[in-house]
Amino acid sequence: MSMTQQAEPAVTTPPVSGPGKEKDGRTQQRSLVLRLLARPEVGVFLGALAILVFFLIMAPTLRQGSSMSTVLYQSSTIGIMVLPVALLMIGGEFDLSSGVAPVASALTASMTAFELTLNVWVGVIAALVVSLAIGFFNGWLLVRTGLPSFLVTLGTFMGLQGVNLAVTKLVTGNVATDDISDMDGFDQAKAVFASSFDVGGVNVKITVLWWLAFAALATWVLLRTKYGNWIFAVGGNKDSARAVGVPVNFTKISLFVLVGFGAWFVGMHNLFQYNTVQSGEGVGNELIYIAAAVVGGCLLTGGYGTIIGPVFGAFMFGLVQLGIVYATWNPDWFKTFLGVMLVGATLVNLWVRKQATRR
Amino acid sequence: MDRSSHPRSRRFAPVIAVAAAAALTLAGCSSSSGGKKSEEGAADASAGKATTPRMTVALVTHQAPGDTFWDTVRKGAEAAAAKDNIKLIYSADPNAGNQANLVQTAIDQKVDGIAVTLAKPDAMKGVIGKADKAGIPVVGLNSGLSDWKQFNMLEFFGQDESVAGEAFGKKLNEVGAKHALCVIQEQGNVGLTQRCDGVEKTFDGKLDVQNVNGADKPSVKSTLTAKLKQDSSIDYVVTLGAPFALTAVQSVSDAGSKAKVATFDLNKELIKAVKSGDIQFAVDQQPYLQGYLAVDGLWLYKNNGNYSGGGEQPVLTGPAFVDKSNVDKIAEFAAKGTR
Q1: Could you identify which of A67, A159, A273, B225 might form a hypothetical disulfide with B8, taking C-beta atoms 3.0 to 4.6 angstroms apart as the criterion?
Q2: Chain A residues closer than 8 Å to B240 by CB
């Protein structure tokens, strides 16, 4: 990717072309609608809207508020992890270990608390340390060796899969952890990571709030801070970025650490929602996270993307997964529907952007 | 394929975390309820020990990593091996081709017996023929009820999935279910499909099937919640593995549904849920028994020429029903992770 990619995020804050400026006729002034459509998240927004309308017609049950709350819960458990994964992709790397990393985190918390009979918050903190360390290790190995992130994180992915299983078996004697729901601190931790509350008779899961809060924070960081500029710069062109004084290594490592933080949060939700963890879980989720970020307009090559886009990307995933159920389609075709919908949504996304940026 | 030998430096991270946590124990962060301390004191089952010559047995299954069911099978096999002075080589791969290769490695190692599951019988046929030719006795367990005899295997220990499904369907009739939902956690798995088909055969009410992504709990939960909301007439959720039953209980309450939950297979959390009434009943195929008998069967054949069922009939390990009436008897074994 060339440096010109870096200019793209500027589209989200349209250049000054106010009424005060006179046209010289050399370039055609594009309409507000077209300029809006050119924003990377608009395509996915329209795609998600189209799928939403489609399922609202096909599946009457989806029209209830409580059904939408279930869809949002499903989207949020994907979406919280998609945020750091998207930032990492904008920064030019991706992480294949992001599927099993939450499981590693949950296992650490559960086993630390249970085996040593400690307050579960001790386990939660131990898990945070481990998760951040995994992220740091990924980033450190990447900048240290210069290997592609595909290879580095594939290694971590496989390594973690084995460690999750072997250490759990070694420590507990079983492949699943013990129930920690009767231990000190569990109720508090559950309130933070896995509670729910009623809004107008509709049950809303707290993960939805966390998801939106994290998304707002990530958008602010990406668009309004120096660190956000660094992310675009290292994703666009590492060498040019370094030449203009961007701390490339720090940016890349910190992005992997952020993924570690996301994994910790999702892992804690899984632990406190379901009380036990099975060590073999999580495999395959990494592709869903990456796909949601791509559907949301992040380029696989880096240097381009937003946070709002992947939020809609995750929503679209949750919507399609559950919309198929609400529409009572033959479950044998489940995965096929999912695949067709996603490629379709991405194409709509692409098409909208092309139409909008054409002169 | 010993899964405990992954040389990764990352292993130290949990070690450091545990060490840090240990320091915190002293600092007074320990939990006053639950945890390891409350569980300690349960003794292990131990029988006598055989003095027969050391022999080597390979157990090759189609376990997916981290599955609680197969862990129990393996524990049964290990118990029998310890008692019979057997060196047990355990390996597993859910991919049929890879599993066949694992059997081949056992033949190459000239083991004294092979115990194998036939989740995809056609893929295993060739390599089992090779074991036969090499003079290694092969026993079947868990899956392959309709094929083991044709493959010239010695004996078979397991449960007929269709029969188990049919028994489940009858039980649903007994408890007055009208509209059940069969939840498949691994799309395309032959045994799981047979269970649902078996239930459908004997169940008088209506049966729907729902596929879920078993590798992702939140996805299982919200998919079931969605289904229960979509169709409020569902009054029984039938899961095909213990962890999914526990998740289904949460979905039922989330969806505000009145459906009850029953399941195939057990684990120790599930036993608690049966006790508390969250789960109505479970069909148990006794995986511990399958692993134990398969290994012990090979020992008996080598040392006394015995074979169960005379090589003609399988030995059925299930279906056994566990519900509130008999759960207490099983609970103490389940706590150790052997039921």
Answers
A1: A159
A2: none
